[in-house]
Amino acid sequence: MRIFIAFLLSLLALSWRISFSDVFSIGSISFNPLILLLYFTTLYWNGWYGLFLGFLLGLLYGIFFPVPFGFYSLVFCSLSFGFLAVRRRIYKYKYSSLIILFIATFIFGVIELLVQGLSTGLFMLHLGINIIPESILTTIIGIGILYILKKMQCGLHLNY
Amino acid sequence: MERKFLVSYVILILTSLLLIILDCRAGPPLGGRIYNFFSIEARQQLNRWTGYKDLEKKNKSLLKDIAKLSYEMEIYETVKRENERLKKTLEFKSNFPLDIIPCQIVNRLPEAVNVSYFISKGAFMSIEVGDPVIGFNGVFGKVLKVGNETSIVQTLMNYNVALSAVDQRSEVRGILRWHRRFYLKGVPIYADVKEGDTIVTSGKGSVFPQGLWIGKVISISRKESGYSLRIEIEPFEDFTDPDVVFVIKK
Q1: Does the distance separating the beta carbons of B24 and A68 come in below 8 Å?
Q2: So what's the pLDDT on residue A159?
Q3: Domain A2-19+31-159 top-level CATH class
């Protein structure tokens, strides 16, 4: 059941990223639901789910872009593994831990720009007007999600 | 970091790399092919399916239309036949030299051998027992019984019938009888009768006027007794499925 839910969430995030990203954007800035899902799944739900979800998401996401099949699996798996690698070194319920999410979104954005083969000027332009704002927006949404998660945790403690 | 995570990560990374290598070697990108499959072929399949559903709907609608049109066509054909029949009846009535009453055949009497019919006119139309009845092509029979609104007509296809008839060409007389087939009886062997001769009423009986067509000679043979000819007649009138007949008023 959990795997099914994870799969559904990944499809939802994927369709959001592919189809509705432009619709639900602030100017040219939109958040990255894939990284958000990967981050919160890996750190707050289950590390295994995060790892395999990253692989699956990468396979599905790669279909829509002219990159070798499996390329994004490599990227998402690595990001997921990165989250797993730092999870012991951060306190995940502190808002400052979301800097990891910001960095991951930024790295993913940079990789996306790199595969497009843009010139240096355009690369820097996109970095400034798209990638950094996207990373900030994703982090802000991550703050909201973490707030809800903390509330849920708090509720559990109170019940206890 | 747990070791099992590391092992899984390495396996997944190796799988990804393997996919990348395979994809780079094998012609068009696999991702593109999958995308095309879902975006084009799957859509085409879906369109085909929805098109098929539309066709099914159209087909049902057309079948309904066909059924409706067939029904209307049938009505039209019936009306057309009725119209033609009435036209023919009126024309026949206008051209016939005697006073005749057109009657519709209502039903056949349930007799196995003799053929008789109910007709749609009776005493109210001044029809009387014994009135001669003709069809479009010749003699049909005579009125056997009369009710107020219907009558019974006994056709020539009856064992009791004995009608005085004459060869139109040679004026040789005989008696028309029915015994599974029509025969002209009582004609001597030396009489001048040929195949194809037209046989008409002689007017000698009390029922039919002279000169009404009965049929034509189709075969002539000598009877075993050797005194008379066996002449078979084919009637002009169809007694099996008539629509309209005419009662001649005397």
Answers
A1: yes
A2: 43
A3: mainly alpha
Q: What is the pLDDT of residue B203?
A: 86
Rounded Cα distance between B181 and B161, Å, is: 12
* DSSP classification of residue A128: I
Angle between helices A47-63 and A2-15 (to 10 degrees): 40
CA angle B225, B227, B230 (to 5 degrees): 80
SS (H, E, C) B95-130: HCCCCEEEEEEEEECCCCCCCEEEECCCHHHCCCCC
Give ∠ CA B129-B135-B138 in degrees, rounded to 5.
105
Q: pTM here? A: 0.50
Question: Which residues, at least 6 apart from B228, have a Cβ–Cβ distance to it below 8 Å?
Answer: B185, B186, B187, B188, B189
A46 and chain B in contact, CB less than 8 A? no
Q: Cβ distance B106 to B119 under 8 Å?
A: yes
pLDDT for the residue B223: 67
CA distance A48 to chain B (A): 8
Distances (CA, A) of B182 to A55, A60, B72: 100, 93, 42
What CA–CA distance (Å, rounded) separates A56 from A76? 9
CA distance B226 to B208: 31
Q: Considering only alpha carbons, which residue of chain B is nearest residue A55?
A: B12
**What's the confidence (pLDDT) of residue A154?**
65
Tell me the ipTM for this assembly: 0.80
A93–chain B nearest CA distance, Å: 19
Kindly state the helix (H) or strand (E) to which residue A118 belongs, with its residue range: none
Strand ranges, E, within chain B: 100-108, 116-119, 132-134, 139-146, 151-155, 162-167, 173-179, 181-185, 198-201, 213-222, 229-235, 244-248
Nearest CA in chain A to B39: A64
Residue-wise pLDDT for B76-134, tens only, equals: 999 999 899 889 889 888 888 888 999 989 988 888 778 899 999 998 988 999 899 99
Question: What average pLDDT does range A4-8 have in this prediction?
Answer: 83
Contact criterion met (CB < 8 Å) for B5 and A52: no
**What tokens appear for A135 in the block?**
């990373």
Decide if A58 touches B, using CB distance below 8 A.
Answer: yes
